[in-house]
Structure formats: C-alpha cells, structure tokens
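User: I'm putting together notes for a lab meeting next week and I want to include a structural view of one of the chains we've been expressing. I don't have a solved structure, so I'd like a prediction I can at least talk through. The sequence is below, exactly as it appears in our construct file.
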Amino acid sequence: MARHLPPLSALRAFEAAARHLSFTRAADELGMTQAAISYQVRLLEERIGTPLFLRGKRQVELTDAGRRLGLDAGGAFDLLAASFEAVKGGASGVLTISVIPTFATGWLARHLYAFQLDHPEIAVRLHATRDISDFDREPVDLAIRGGLHPGRGLVAHKLLRADFTPMLSLALSARIGRPLDDPADLLAYPLIDPTDPWWNEWFAHAGIRREGFDVDDGHKMGGQDLESIAALAGHGVAILTPFFYREDLAAGRLRQPFDLLCPTERGYWLCYPPGRRNVPKVRVFRDWLLSHFPDPDADLSSGRAIG
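Assistant: Thanks for the context. Below is the predicted structure for the 307-residue chain, given as structure tokens.
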C-alpha cells in the first residue's frame, strides 16, 4: 500500500521549528534561511489544510495540530536516526553521559571500568553536572538524574530511591562529646546545610519539629558529593543517602547514628529520548546499568525491601 507522505524537506523544517519554537533557530540548525523555513512550513500547512503555528510579532506557538504533528515527527526522526546509527556502526563509538555528581562519584566512577573492559569498542565520556541536559541541543546520549520522575517525553528507568538519613564522622562525635541516643540529640550538633529541606523532612519523620529553619539561608553546598566530604572532614552532620557511602560506613569513616531512613519518591533515573532506545551503544549501556539495579525500591544500604 502506498504511503501518503508530505514532502520530507517540509516535514524536516517544520519538526526543527516546532522543537525550537523558533524559525531562526531551525534555520541555523538546518543551514537554511529563515525565509526558507517559513516557506517549507507554509507548504506543509497547505498540504494538511490547517495552521501548525500561531504566529506572533516576536514568537510562534504551536496549534493543537502542530503539537501533535511535532511530537510524532520528532519521534519518527529519532527512530530514523537510531536505525541509521545501528546500520552504520553497531554498538560502538563515543557514548556521552550526563550524570549528577552524587551518582558519578558515589557509584558510576567506581564501576565504569568493568563496563569498559567488557565493551572496549565503546568510549564512555562522562559529563558530571547538576544542570539538566537538553537532548535536542547538547551532544548527550544518556542522562542520570536525581529527583522526581523526569516527566513525559523521556524514557526513564528508576535505579534506586534516594532515602536519606544523618551521617557524621567519629571525630565529630568525639569533639562534641554528646551521645546520640535519640534523634533530638542531633539538635546540639552542627548540621551541614541546616536549611536543606531534607533535614526538616527527616526530623518530621522522627517526630521532631525544628523551629526557625523554614527559610532558606542561602548556604548550600549543592549536593551530597560535597556534603559528604564536609562530613568526613568533621565539619558537621550531613543528610545523605546511605547507598553511596557503604564503604565509608564499613570502614568507620562515617557513622549512621540512627536506623531511621526517611522514605521519598525522589530517586536516581536513567533517561533518554524514546527514539534512542534501540541505538546499540545506548542499549548496551542501559542493559548493563539496569542489571546492577534490578529493584529500584529496595533499601540498597542493607538489602532490605522498603515498605
């Protein structure tokens, strides 16, 4: 059966303009003039018989028809790109991963060597950042993010929950000299980033209300990777996810004074655009990583399932 397709040059121009919500940026991406992009989009609108954009003085917006066609066209071009990549080179080349620093330092950097031994044909390039990558504009194949589900538009595999609890060094315990028999005893200790929302969540989970810590004081280290270093140096108590610090706990460099973990819907996620799910290098890394995290709702600090 014959396929009734629009002119692919027009569809390509429209998809880029819809993705950027800008004819100018689409023209830059495709090496065309803005007038040529506009002409191709109008050609497609005439073929369909309905507007795809609402054109304003300074910006354009997609109509309902434009949003639907833009989403489908983007997915189709992603699938074509993935198929081309598979035919061209198989599971090889450079795999660029944007990864949140906590996961990069707490797990990935410790295990990546094993992946590269098994797959020497894939060169992995890590970009440790707290910024959320834009897959349409940055040369990133995969991302490992922390927080809530990344949302629609991305394939997201949950790796583990980010349940958290206080941790500190033995040196700090000795210096303060106050036993930690009850969670309330922590109020006598210096807390790293005390207005971090995780602290109030953990104290509330322990049945304790802290006064005067509802307003962000602006002092933030920005992530567990830095807060754990400060805790190891004896500067205060950090609120951390135990999974990343099992070696420090086992060696006595850190101690977890209470078994109380605060449960959360936050977690760590492997994510990528739907069209990349079958790109060989993406598939190989995804399958390897997920094999290490078979149960994202397990308490990986102790092996117990979290209820």
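A couple of points you could mention at the meeting. Residues 8-87 form a domain with the Arc Repressor Mutant, subunit A fold (CATH 1.10.10.10). Confidence is low (pLDDT under 50) at residues 302-307.

User: Perfect, that's what I needed.
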